[in-house]
Input
Amino acid sequence: MTAIDQAAARRATDQVPSIPRDQDGPVFREPWEAQAFAMALALHERGVFTWPEWAATLGDEIKRAQAAGDPDTGETYYLHWLAALERLVAEKGVTSRETLHRTKHAWEHACDRTPHGKPIELRDEDFH
Output
């Protein structure tokens, strides 16, 4: 599981009130949600974006999803979080949308060839 800086997590939940949380802080249904949360915290701490920029981008992604039929039950929150993260890193020049797209498809290819329960490893051929 991803270790999360608790002070940074508190600052994030103060600045982005929609983050699912309990009395102890943010809550996650799956490990990838915690990892996406931690990536956003790390990029914010490095000055890639401000919390107001993040909140605006996340809000835009949620509105897009709702317009496309997302039921807004809370179960898809971190999908919107991930979409906002991908959008901001591309807009800020951290990476390109093309690189994100290529890497996503490489992971999908690697997942398809990996037996259940085995670690997924990216190989050069996954990118072709």
